[in-house]
Amino acid sequence: MPTTTIRGACPHDCPDTCALLTTVEDGRAVRVQGNPAHAATGGVLCAKVSRYAERTHHAERILTPLRRSGPKGSGRFTPVSWDEALDDIARRLTEIATRDPQAILPYSYAGTMGLVQGESMDRRFFHRLGASLLHRSICSTAGGEGLVHTLGGKLGMKVEFFAESKLILIWGSNSIGSNLHFWRIAQQAKRDGARLVCIDPRRTETAEKCHEHLQLRPGTDAALALALMHELIVHDWLDHDYIARHTLGWEALRARALEWPPERAAEVCGLPVEQIRRLARDYGTTRPAAIRLNYGVQRAHGGGNAVRAVACLPALTGAWRERAGGVLLSSSGAFPVQRAALQHPDLLAGRSPRSINMVTIGDDLLRASSPAFGPKIEALVVYNSNPVAVAPDSPKVVQGFAREDLFTVVLEHFQTDTADYADYILPATTQLEHWDVHLAYGHTDVLLNRPAIAPQGQARSNAQIFRDLAARMGFTEPCFADTDEALCRQAYGEKVDFALLLDQGFAPLPVPDAPFADGGFPTPSGKCEFFSQRLADQGLDPLPGHVPNHEAAGASTLYPLAMISPPARNFLNSSFVNLQSLRDIEGRPLLEMHPEDAAVRGIADGALVRVFNERGSYECHAALNGRARPGVVNGLGVWWRKLGHGGTNVNEVTSQALTDMGAGPTFYDCAVQVEAAGG
Ligand SMILES: Nc1nc2c(c(=O)[nH]1)N[C@H]1C(S)=C(S)[C@@H](COP(=O)(O)OP(=O)(O)OC[C@H]3O[C@@H](n4cnc5c(=O)[nH]c(N)nc54)[C@H](O)[C@@H]3O)O[C@H]1N2
Ligand SMILES: Nc1nc2c(c(=O)[nH]1)N[C@H]1C(S)=C(S)[C@@H](COP(=O)(O)OP(=O)(O)OC[C@H]3O[C@@H](n4cnc5c(=O)[nH]c(N)nc54)[C@H](O)[C@@H]3O)O[C@H]1N2
Ligand code: SF4
Ligand SMILES: [Mo]
């Protein structure tokens, strides 16, 4: 019985982008492990992807094209051949495109982060068609813009050097759950004497294992960062030389920060003033000091400003001078992806289609044609995403997907909540069945993914499906003939040694150890921009400031609780919810509450509760497990609606309001009321 081991890459939306080793026996993947030769992976995978063989060979995989055979949303389908499905889809899309191609909307995100299966042939196809563009904002645009306007790009410390830090701020990140390989590095620093501080409204597994936890109110991080600056200034824990040479707008920032004594921030953040003072002293007097910032801080109204405020800190103390000092939110800007070669924007041929924000898909699917909006959305092609489960304000999203006059095609592995609303479901390959090449946002190595097994059933890769559709629609440009393997080579062109990728599966980028030790920020001024002219030009505050939540805790008497909805550890967004072994670990959909908030509502631990506001209502079980702070509830995400209670999940109550920068989502800026269900 022949056994082989194939090198690959984890496709999931996770900072760690692990190198995989898949063991194959008789054409079946029997084991998926971490590649020990890849330092960032260190031979270790998370529990989720250790189950990747189970996911791939799952009995409920979609293995043939399916056509809807019941009412919209009924989830009833019949198998059809690829020819029937592709002919009919091409006919329907052509018919709509003849009227206005912008009535067609692609909807995708990072179900796979692969550059080939996520942003190559699909983009070529929709560019050639002239379809609406999608603003892919559902995760990181607020923080991304915040970084760009401060440091100049999605760049920061090299993750491995956190091991040498003496103080690590883990800010808006449950590293144990969602950035496991960073946590291993932080543990090493801890063993070598580093102090770990967690800043998070939830008492996470990570917070419990740090030396200190600042359990602030959601959406108040900028106030905390400004108070830290205040203390750095009044105690003169500043690197004046670094500030003078490598920053822009110091006097203005100084004046702003002096408006934020710790007492004021303590009031806004709901923290003891002593805890803020202590953190400022530690940060001002410990070297090297490092900040692992994560996207949890930027899912509230002021998310962009919060990231800007935090990203200013290392320039004030000169922490950037050492390789173990600075901040890391994302490293993805370091990757020289050849996007024009991959995506062919030239196929737009001078057209500039409108862009639809994926966060507001609920409202946008319900809009009529108008001069301001353009044509009504008549067709949706969904891949690498499960919007009916993950997009905010799901009552509206569901209503939109249920439109009888909407033509919906979903490329999927499983019959998700979104696939239930499809007219056609097309079977997609998993990472074990196709080629791809990857960037990472938590380290700086390029990874290659080789197929380990043949496509299961009649599954085809996303790139193959768009290639097939292009042929059906008469798109004859040569770029539609590129194979998946050729696309892998085009992703980085000459910038990355493809032979090395073929040989070992990964290739480190040549990035400097201490990127801003001597300034050199890729901003317009070349400095760390405390003051941003680009923001001023957009009519925004040019300095980082505290922007209160749209729905601040306690501001509404009807909905007095602030809800955040961070990821459950054993799911990845809504992926893996349908894996029995992982769902068994998570148990059931939970709402963590503070015992006092539960007691006044007559709610006992484990009771079924109703979480609601003017948008919707969600049923789950109360967990009085010590993780919630008073006034804040934590609704762990993101369950499939159909696997939760009453066919709902936490996004019943989240809103489509946007962030200060980047037009991102505000999942963690959400006021609710809670009552005992049936009460
Ligand atoms: N297991 C698992 N891993 C994941 C994911 C997953 O769903 N499951 N998701 C992946 C994705 S898509 C992403 S984008 C990345 C990063 O995704 P993130 O959402 O950054 O992941 P977390 O590290 O869980 O960080 C969220 C943390 O921020 C906290 N938080 C919420 N509001 C605030 C706030 O206002 N201020 C502060 N300081 N903290 C706040 C939450 O309590 C939570 O602990 O993780 C990825 N990794
Ligand atoms: N309330 C709340 N909502 C949230 C969040 C939160 O913290 N709280 N987090 C938000 C964040 S950070 C993000 S990034 C979004 C993520 O939302 P999504 O990007 O929609 O992520 P997933 O829910 O993992 O869904 C990805 C889907 O892609 C499919 N898929 C995977 N690989 C392939 C492939 O190769 N081909 C095809 N055709 N399909 C594939 C998977 O089967 C899965 O169903 O959710 C957001 N929603
Ligand atoms: S989800 Fe993250 S930690 Fe888990 S295997 Fe993938 S990259 Fe590694
Ligand atoms: Mo995300």
From TrEMBL:
Coiled coil: none annotated. Its cofactor is Mo-bis(molybdopterin guanine dinucleotide). Belongs to the prokaryotic molybdopterin-containing oxidoreductase family. It comes from the Bacteria. The lineage of its organism: Bacteria, Pseudomonadati, Pseudomonadota, Betaproteobacteria, Burkholderiales. Residues 3-60 form the 4Fe-4S Mo/W bis-MGD-type domain. Keywords: Iron, Iron-sulfur, Metal-binding, Molybdenum, Oxidoreductase. PANTHER family: OXIDOREDUCTASE YYAE-RELATED (PTHR43742:SF6), TRIMETHYLAMINE-N-OXIDE REDUCTASE (PTHR43742). This is Molybdopterin oxidoreductase family protein. It comes from Diaphorobacter limosus. InterPro entries: Asp_de-COase-like_dom_sf (IPR009010), MoPterin_dinucl-bd_dom (IPR006657), Mopterin_OxRdtase (IPR006656), Mopterin_OxRdtase_4Fe-4S_dom (IPR006963), Mopterin_OxRdtase_prok_CS (IPR006655), Prok_Mopterin_Oxidored (IPR050612), YoaE_C (IPR037920). Pfam families: Molybdop_Fe4S4, Molybdopterin, Molydop_binding.
